Amino acid sequence: MQLTDYFLLFGSVMISGIGYFIIKNPGPNFLKLILSFSGAFLFALTVLHLMPELYQHNTASIGVWIMIGFFLQIIMEFFSEGIEHGHMHIQHDHKGAFPTTMMLSLCLHSLLEGMPLAGKLSNGSNDRSLLIGIILHHLPVAFALVSMLVASGISKTKVITYLALFAIMAPLGAFSSIFIGGNLLADYSGWFDKMMAIVIGIFLHISTTILFESSSNHRFNLYKMVAIITGGLIGVFVS
Questions:
Q1: Contact 152, 83 (CB under 8 A)
Q2: Domain boundaries, the chain
Q3: Does residue 239 register a pLDDT over 70?
Q4: 18 CB burial (10 A radius; 0-12, 13-18, 19+)
Q5: Average pLDDT over residues 55-71
Q6: Measuring CA to CA, which residue among 199, 198, 91, 110 is closest to residue 162?
Q7: How far apart are CA 172 and CA 112, in angstroms?
Q8: What b/e readout covers 137-174, taking b as 16+ CB neighbours within 10 angstroms?
Q9: 197: which residues sit within 8 A by CB, 6+ positions away?
Q10: From CA 153, how far away is CA 159, in angstroms rounded?
């Protein structure tokens, strides 16, 4: 990976999270539309690019690792309360309390997503599809995280600190994966393929959850459909 890739992963999350303090009262549907776009993009990217590439040089048994990723995300969401796809559960009776389990789960989620990047962007590859997918996925998550932390009564300084912690996880995942795959394991390519399969399972769960969630407001459903179609089309042509 190039140094700029690490900065893109970190900087995009920080900019999106800090953007919450700039955008005043974005409205209840703002985050849902962004999530719909990113969910459609993730789904198209996964089924049209990531999965075919993974199966091209692996046996069908790699699907076991995809299932592991899918069900691992279900477990992580038990602790994160679904903030990965926009759910924000604010406990008003615990103002100022830091949601430790949610943050730990979200950081693990981001760490895992960054791990296959090291293999995909090695050896001079120009394929930035996974990098783009992770960035677009993390933008609304960062916005939702800051929104939830602010509403929970946590100070602005601490909010920025926790945002930075979340932002560093994906770059840390990529860096740690290089160390593990290159120094501790004999099957270097097999390590990255398994990690990619886990991330594909995570993406499948998150994207389908976002896409299947609906609103009773039919007018909003029209906007959501436009966002989904746009995200899906971009996912088709991304490389």
A1: no
A2: 3-20+28-82+96-237
A3: no
A4: middle
A5: 89
A6: 110
A7: 10
A8: bbbbbbbbbbbbbeebebeeeebbebbeebbbbbbbbb
A9: 54, 62, 63, 65, 66, 68, 69
A10: 10
